[in-house]
Amino acid sequence: MSDYQPRDPGFAARVRASFARQHLMHTLGAQLTRVAPGECEIEMPFSLDFAQQHGFLHAGTLTAVVDSACGYAALSLMAPGAAVMSVEFKVNLLAPAAGERLVARARVVRSGRTLTIVAGDGFMRDGADERHIFTMLATMMAVAGRAGIAD
Amino acid sequence: MSDYQPRDPGFAARVRASFARQHLMHTLGAQLTRVAPGECEIEMPFSLDFAQQHGFLHAGTLTAVVDSACGYAALSLMAPGAAVMSVEFKVNLLAPAAGERLVARARVVRSGRTLTIVAGDGFMRDGADERHIFTMLATMMAVAGRAGIAD
Amino acid sequence: MSDYQPRDPGFAARVRASFARQHLMHTLGAQLTRVAPGECEIEMPFSLDFAQQHGFLHAGTLTAVVDSACGYAALSLMAPGAAVMSVEFKVNLLAPAAGERLVARARVVRSGRTLTIVAGDGFMRDGADERHIFTMLATMMAVAGRAGIAD
Amino acid sequence: MSDYQPRDPGFAARVRASFARQHLMHTLGAQLTRVAPGECEIEMPFSLDFAQQHGFLHAGTLTAVVDSACGYAALSLMAPGAAVMSVEFKVNLLAPAAGERLVARARVVRSGRTLTIVAGDGFMRDGADERHIFTMLATMMAVAGRAGIAD
Known about the structure:
The structure is a homotetramer.
Chain A: H1 11-20, H2 23-28, E1 31-36, E2 39-45, H3 59-75, E3 83-93, E4 101-111, E5 115-126, E6 129-143
Antiparallel strand pairs in A: 1-2, 2-4, 3-6, 4-5, 5-6
């Protein structure tokens, strides 16, 4: 499915272990539902605790989940030992984030040695219906050799 | 201090009331510490619950607080009855978000009838020291006449 | 091919007429090679006149052509009488822009009454080979009733 | 004036020499009017050749000049031998670019070893009057050791 070759054959376990250490993902009740070379999917149930003043999921909540998916799509292609950090991203909010479940999907656009460009999207799912509500274009960086920082 | 004239003399109370209805700001323990025409400041204590895998505040957490500050800086200049919604934003992460307290400051760059451009920044405060860790450039929209959507 | 229904049945002629009035596109030697509902393609031959200091096409040149493609993809869906203006865009440069020809392709992500979100990409073509070198995420606005501003 | 210490004492001559090799800046009739550690200013006279269909300077023209200013603000702080390349940028168009002269000003927000974050702005000048029409937030990269690529 994916066009990318992982530099680390253990990429999937590494992404899952890093996700498990993400405090915010735990707080949000988010789950890593798929990882492939250069791709990642995360889901989160709707909760009013993470909504804005009109009752829709807050742009910051959407950003947190899609940014994490983008970061792990990037990490899946990084060499062993590198940590992933977000350099920057841009977001467009396409429609109010109402629905049962947020689904975030990210795929690498370009994988470089230092920088990885990733496109991410957010969808609200209601039963079998999915609505595209969010899109992100992000730059991720591979950071190596910083004490205490890995994956 | 500010160059802008509010269209709504009750802008400050309106911003405070809307902030009080922001579920996510309550969840994060964030407080609105300042509002002026075209300007807004929000603070949040560091909490590991909202951190990423390396123990720094997650980019989504920073985005949530700075985006809210940008939205309220925009709302402070909007006509009575309009609701504010984020159209899009771009973020650069300047340094790891470690410290006691996140301080988000936003100021309107250009106030239009429909669209407002806002610059926001995030700082980590430790005692008297503040470090610039995050910068955002955002577009906010005034939405009028949508049932159930105000401020 | 396209999922969108144009609001203006004469959208293609209207886009072509507006493109013909774009001074910069003429200066760059760019040509409108395709227009469909919500989609647009523009090509430009490489020229050192529009290069940066290392001999690659300048980021501003790439932006000009891809932004125009994004604007016309948006205009193709706008109601008669509306003019299109760029509100904002974000760009990632993926690889140096060397090659015979720049090909810019844009497609609408979301079409609203006032705002249209468009994704655009730039490719350098050498013979039959195409290389992805540029990606843009843009917001376009429909402006109506401004004297002297149309399409 | 500037808070930054240049790593290269010959930074100003180096920026001026690189600017002189920018084909597009020459084509646009742009001039480098100021360089300081972490800062750069470029001016360009209005010309219809670089306008869009409504007679205002094209977003791509504005981007070209402000991106160049951002790149040289970054280069002014880079170590000798490094070349500067744009990684990504985000732009907001604040008002139509009508007037006698475009003035672009850039200043570094954060200077890192590999990445430099720069804020740039565009103004249209008419006589003594300046109008803020454009704002950019950009990431620049220091590239070393690539054959044929310097400054």
